[in-house]
Amino acid sequence: MKIPSYLKKGDTVAIVCTARKFFPEDAIPAQELLESWGLKTKLGRTIGLDSCQLGGTDVERAADFQAMLDDDDVKAIWCARGGYGTVRIIDMLDFSNFKKHPKWIMGFSDVTVLHSQVNVERVASLHAIMPFTVPRAPEAVKETLRKALFGESIEYVIPAVSYNINGKATGELVGGNLSILYSLLGSKSSLDTDGKILYIEDLDEYLYHIDRMMQNLKRNGYFDGLKGLIVGGMTDMHDNEIPFGQNAVQIITAIASEYEIPVAFDFPAGHQKDNRTLILGSQVEFEVNDLEVKLKFL
């Protein structure tokens, strides 16, 4: 696994649209945040483009992202917001130069498409807040992104919940949004989870569909060699008029408990204000006990 160079003051971070549209005035809080860390910003050509829901056409978004991948002066690429659209451009991108000169790709939600693809390319990336979410992100959460970008040590210790499954594991952290991981099954962007620790989160889904996605990850072997499971926010879940009969925790536990691996629920990452940065592709130590959950990036 290649770890991109950590940033230093004076480095440039690009902000681009890979999915939903985003406008220059909306980027100001993110630019101010980066500048407070001593970094420079570069707005991509897609910032301000309006193609229905998307920040430009597929060709425009792919070209903008490719330009930032190939720009040696750009040390990190921050996806402006999620929604939908990244999968429409992923096969237009050429990662050959990126693999020789890796740089940080940052974001969450729909950006899971990129996280998965660059993991296949064996480059680490940052599951983190995006410019769209900067205004509502707590200072402590922003600080986790700064630490990750500048290569400072990160370790999270959170209180345990009664429905966790205790255990210890060490391995490479992979994952992201459950719906996106599910949508990538069978493609060249699908993750290899063997010997790894999987992180998942989701938003605004029906409970039966959480079960459908988990069942399909299971059938595709995602849990066969898995060493641990971290479940972030399962936010704003829905049920049908006739209840499914299980909540998100019960659905996930029913599958994960078959594999005798540690499982941590309610981890502070995902579609919530407390969305702490995760270094995907990094080796981590993961421990779940009766009192707390520890996640240390090595």
TrEMBL record:
Keywords: Carboxypeptidase, Hydrolase, Protease, Serine protease
UniProt xrefs under CDD domains: Peptidase_S66
Entry superkingdom: Bacteria
Keyword Hydrolase: yes
Record flagged with keyword 4Fe-4S: no
Family annotation (InterPro entries): Carboxypeptidase_A_C_sf (IPR027461), Class_I_gatase-like (IPR029062), LdcA_N (IPR027478), Peptidase_S66_N (IPR040449), Peptidase_S66C (IPR040921), S66_fam (IPR003507)
Protein name stated in the entry: LD-carboxypeptidase
